[in-house]
Design brief:
With about 450 residues, this protein is of the alpha/beta class. It contains twelve helices and 18 strands. A hairpin with a 2-residue loop joins strand 11 and strand 12. Bound molecules: zinc ion (ZN).
Length: about 450
Amino acid sequence: MENIVGNFYCNYEWYFEKSFYHRYFDHKEIKNLILYRLPQNDIFTVTEVGRSVEDREIYLVKVGSGKTKVLLWSQMHGDEPTSTAAFFDFFGFLLKNDKWNDVRGDLLRSLTLYFVPMLNPDGVERFSRYNAQGIDLNRDAKALVAPESRILDRLVNDIKPDFAFNMHDQDFRWSVGGGKQMVTLSFLAPAFDEARTVDEPRRKAISLLSTVIRDFDEICPGRITRYSDDFEPRSFGDTIAGKGISTILIESGRYEMFDSDKRRVRQILPAILFHCFLKISNNDFEDDGTLYNNTPFNGKFLYDLIMRNVKFTRNGVSAIADFAINRNFHFNPENRKPYFISNLEAVGDLSPFFGYYEADCTGLEIMPYDKYPDLYELKEIIADHPKLQPVYPGSSDFRGFPHPGEIQLSDDFPAINRRADFFLTDGNNVRFIVLNGRMLSYPHIKRMKDISI
Ligand SMILES: [Zn+2]
């Protein structure tokens, strides 16, 4: 990593936007920052470029006066906020007045940066991928049904940027290649035709990404992938790449399971942007792209929990199989807090797959709670258990749990696509309970990560 970028990354604490304490900030919060914080420095020009379906303002933040133009937008999917926060972190750097003034001055003399933070504010309100019409904006680049899509399309045509950065978050269950390593960052220089032609603008994007992959492997070792480069004509990235604009897709994953607020990835993003801006301003596209072309693609081989070799009985017939469980994200718009509902995803031979948590359940049999009515009381025990409280106030990771809700019983136990509530017995004693997808030892309740069977 270049010294200057490494320094910038290490000094994150000094410029990051402190008002985004967690991932569930809304449009009002960024509006406040755009209207009151950014104008503290006259390098920023803020324009309202249109309104969402539900009449929320969409802003363009312009900074710099250079002849090379870079357009960046975030949160076209409302539930993907990491890069919006990272934009404001970068603005925090630009707002400073200190020993970095020369660097900032040089950058802003050679580049004009155009940011659209939060393209889909109605989706943010619901923490949903879609806009208020239920449209996925990133499949609307051709039809332009949604007003938000038309705003982005117009900005691309009016600004005619040299570079476009399409910022997203991806499912944390993507893994590197066919393995179990969680992906922290995924990149793509999108193709603009079925043949995946590499013209000069796309070559520049690939060259740039190759240097990002090389330099940032140090801080997220083995955690970088390429996003699928299948041509998707309805997406903005592919469409914009087809206009001869060097286009870059950045997908934020997670650094590790417990970083569910993605603080670590959020810290890395402004440094990646800074790295790219410096390369673009120096017109440095000498890298031949080998590293990018050799970077593994995203794979999908991860579940939250896999219990191996579980005995179960269905319709009077016993068998042994693996059980895969996910805890799926839901959002409560009333209090802007997430909650999780588990789901039994698969039963069978799951040997190609991995669990973030894995338990070898050889010798154990799985049972529904109605076979053991005393266990109903566990709900209260667990709710009050000090070890099972949220990790820190406001955290979106209720490592503790379970989400309040009824234990699901089913006649056709074990049933796929039902909430994962059951217990495991060795024939004499209950050894483990699974409540809303969380596996705990019993009767001495311990979190899964503390358990060795
Ligand atoms: Zn997305």
